[in-house]
Amino acid sequence: MFPSPITQLFQIQYPIIQAGMVWTSGWRLASAVSNAGGLGLIGAGSMAPPVLKEHIQKCKAATSRPFGVNLPLLYHGVEQQVQIILEEAVPIIFTSAGNPKAWTKVFKDAGRTVVHVVSSSKFAVKAEQAGCDAVVAEGFEAGGHNGREETTTMVLIPLVADAVKIPVIAAGGIATGRQMLAALTLGADAVQIGTRFVASKEASCHINFKKAVSEAVEGATQLSLKQLTPVRLLKNKFYELVSAAERQGATTDDLQQLLGKGRARRGMFEGELNEGELEIGQSSALIHDIPAAATIVKQIWDEFQAAKSRIQQLNSL
After folding, report:
1. Helices 293-315 & 27-35, crossing angle to 10 degrees?
2. Does the pLDDT at position 152 exceed 70?
3. pTM for the predicted model, two decimal places
4. Which domain holds residue 244?
């Protein structure tokens, strides 16, 4: 086990956490990452309560190692999802996109480990005060829902590390072992990685989306829909429609109507690359293949060790 407050907190081998992403993070991905020595998370955001229960039970059957559930607090039906998480004795819960006070005490009273995702040092302090065991500090580079402050990971990590006493997990634009070493140097205790695991064999998203991520280039994503909930999107026809509407002064209602229902499912789960909402991070430009999740964990760890050795060599000069 790598010596880290996070590996000790979760009882995992490597300080590598797979983000819980809508339409992508089912039981196959979560169990594969956990079996490889990281922490796998089931993404509850795109799951109705019965589906979430099924994925938790299948994940239990597929791994004897710790895993968790990511619970976005902005969707309807959170109360039912919480009940299932409690009934199924999920040991680790990552909450996001909402107030950490909403459910932290409920989970803590049940003896669970709770982590909250934040985009600023101010919200990190609030998560600590709410009783969270750790925070994920997610920078502007991240895919999916993002902070309005647009603080980059390089700036956010030391700000959060200095603001709280609980362990800090770095996220946003991290896909390699070199970036992992940089994050730990900045004060993080672990990394949470989303985009790299989207392009994996076990991810539940459509192969069209996986290929689009692996073929993305620098500048292929953009933070959008800031009037609703800021989200980083892969540029496609839908993104261009949103961008044009925003330039023309679209209201919140206009954007909500344009977004409609099921847009993210169409893009990420059904593979509609033109009309779908494709949520992905800037690190997609670093990704060029679609390997197994265990291979990704090993690649990140090996590169992390190689980067450490390079720094040690530089220190000896």
Report:
1. 40
2. yes
3. 0.95
4. 216-283
